[in-house]
Amino acid sequence: METPGSQSSLHRANLERVVRAVRLAGSLTQAEIARATGLSAATVSNIVRELKDGGTVEVTPTSAGGRRARSVSLSGDVGIVIGVDFGHEHLRVAVGNLAHQVLAEEAEPLDVDASWADGFGRAEALVNRLIEDIGVGRDKVIGVGLGVPGPIDVESGTLGSTAILPGWAGINPRQELSRRLGVPVYVDNDANLGALGELVWGSGRGVKDLAYIKVASGVGAGLVINGQIYRGPGGTAGEIGHITLDESGPVCRCGNRGCLETFAAARYVLPLLQPSHGPDLTMERVVELGQEGDPGCRRVIADVGRHIGSGVAHLCNLLNPSRVILGGNLAESGELVIAPIRESVSRYAIPSAARQLTVLTGSLGERAEVLGALALVLSEMGDGTVLGGSVPSLGALSPLAG
User: Fold this and answer.
1) What is the DSSP string of 219-253?
2) Residues 6+ apart with CB under 8 A from 178
3) Contacts of 127 (CB under 8 A, 6+ apart)
4) pLDDT of 191-247, one tens digit each?
5) Which backbone phi and psi does 165 adopt, to 5 degrees?
6) CA 35 → CA 31, 41, 45, 309, 380, distances in Å?
7) Contact indicator for 79, 98 with CB cutoff of 8 Å
8) Which residues contact 27 (CB under 8 A, 6 or more apart)?
9) What is the DSSP letter of 155?
10) Are 120 and 128 in contact (CB under 8 A)?
11) Which of 130, 13, 23, 33 minimizes the C-alpha distance to 376?
């Protein structure tokens, strides 16, 4: 048996430190592993050799700073992770390996509000089909990341607001999908997963403090503080859409008046343009028309940008992030929406916080949330799974495991 402080337990701990560093980064050189873990170069070299011989990692030649180096990544044979993203109008599933490579991905239209049972049935079928398509056995699935368009109650594991998905009232998304797929499931809201996706693969790479603002049917923010998603004790941190902009404004679904969401979300914005542009107008079409020069659409996009900027200014004053990334359909407007956001930030934020802030659109587009779901599994899974230890129990996976 291993005892605390024994050579065997120390060796196991060092193995896990190396595996964790590589798992979170996707791939690292041995020098980068040494810096990330604090282990000596010789220790890292010996551990990498052992892991390579055991088939846990793959080592490929590369260069770093003009010098020859060896890149270390987890073996594609170790296992796969799955991301499932429920939007209000879509279902997207991705399958990836532990080297941060996406092996398969597919999306299909879905009215998530209509039926939770239909939504989970469609997700189960799509997951099974993609696994079969890439020819990987079900025993290789380490875990599933699940994104839902609403806050998750930490204590119950259910959606925290029945106003967002009324048909899902009382449903525990993690337990339901885990029951269907038979593997551990990690769940978070779509804004947090968008932040994770951009942090690992997109516009947030190399940044430790950022906010990802998703503007769609609602408005939410995923907050990254010191490289980690900040959820708050109740799991509802980042509800930027419910900052009050006008106490006499429209009634919000949360019950308050004049929330940011009532000035920026699609359900409130589209009616402003539908009398002149038709009842079938969508936010995607508004963005297209705005880019083509339509004055009404350009004006509405700019107004929405200024309102979002007011909310971002509040974030700057409270959290002082170094980067704000805009996601959702509106982000496709580019500078049409980003410039007004910057304008409001410069007007309402503390000058020092505004100077340090970079505002830009996400680089992953509609894929941000499903890639964030993959990143969630990669960040939360236990290293013992990779090294041949037992899979953690479902109740101990994360604060949002339910």
Assistant:
1) EEEEEEETTEEE--TTS-TT-GGG-BS-TTSPBPT
2) 144, 184, 185, 394
3) 82, 84, 93, 95, 144, 181
4) 999 999 999 999 999 899 999 999 988 899 999 999 899 998 888 899 999 999 999
5) -130, 80
6) 6, 9, 13, 38, 22
7) yes
8) 71, 72, 73, 99, 100
9) T
10) no
11) 23
For the stretch 146-170, pLDDT in tens is: 998 877 777 777 776 555 666 777 7
* Count of positions (residues) in the chain: 402
Q: Which amino acid is at 91?
A: L
Count other C-beta atoms under 10 Å from residue 284's C-beta: 12
Q: Which residue has the tokens 């002082």?
A: 320
The rounded distance, in Å, linking the Cα atoms of 70 and 64 is 9
Angle between helices 7-25 and 30-37 (to 10 degrees): 110
Residue 110 has φ and ψ, to the nearest 5°, of: -160, 130
Structure tokens at 222: 């995923």
CA–CA gap between residue 314 and residue 83 (Å, rounded): 32
In the DSSP assignment, the letter for residue 152 is: B
* Separation between Cα atoms, residue 400 and residue 90, nearest integer Å: 23
CA atoms of 382 and 25, how far apart (whole Å): 15
Residues linked to residue 251 through DSSP beta bridges, in sequence order:
257
Q: In the block, which residue shows the tokens 């079938």?
A: 280
pTM of this structure: 0.85
Tell me how far apart the alpha carbons of residues 304 and 338 are, in angstroms, rounded to a whole number: 10
